[in-house]
Amino acid sequence: MSKRLAEEMCAAWTARTGIATVVLRPVMILTDESLATTPHAQLDLGAFVHVDDVADAVVKALGAAITGTARVTLCGPGEFDTSGAERVLGWRATRST
């Protein structure tokens, strides 16, 4: 609920001020170490993103030419739709299992 409210606050801020906001929605964030120790069954779902890919998305979001509020999902290879992140930020996950 708190995440949803924060997203709504971003949208309200943009509506009030005209200053664009970007909401990044990363799924489970993993490092190299946690990738090695996370059970493979959890990784098969594709519901993870490497911390380096998240950092890359943050850098791209800071420099993106965005109007309004953009809400994008960050996920490594898997079932989650990350086309918004690619379209809005030019971001695509590069790290996988």
Walkthrough of the structure:
The model has no long low-confidence stretch (mean pLDDT 90). The longest helix is centred in the first third of the chain and has 16 residues, at 2-17. This protein has a two-stranded parallel sheet. With 97 residues, it is α/β, with parallel strands linked by helices. It has five helices and four strands. The radius of gyration is 14 Å and the shape is elongated. It is 48% helix and 19% strand.
Characteristics of this structure?
single chain; 97 residues; alpha/beta; two-stranded parallel ribbon; 4 strands
Set out the fold topology.
Layout: H1 2-17, E1 21-26, E2 28-30, H2 32-37, H3 40-44, E3 48-50, H4 51-63, E4 69-74, H5 83-89
Parallel strand pairs: 1-4, 2-3
Briefly say what this structure is.
The protein has 97 residues and is of the alpha/beta class. It contains 5 helices and 4 strands, in the order H-E-E-H-H-E-H-E-H.
Separation, N- and C-terminal Cα atoms:
30 Å
State mean pLDDT (0 to 100 scale). 90
Class per helix and strand makeup: alpha/beta
Task: Indicate the low-confidence ranges by residue numbers.
Answer: none
Share of helix among residues? 40-55%
What's the shape? elongated
Number of H- or I-type helical stretches = 5
Number of strands: 4
Please summarize the sheet with the most strands.
2 strands, parallel
Taking all Cα atoms into account, the compactness measure Rg is: 14 Å
- Spatial sequence of strands, sheet with the most strands: 1-4
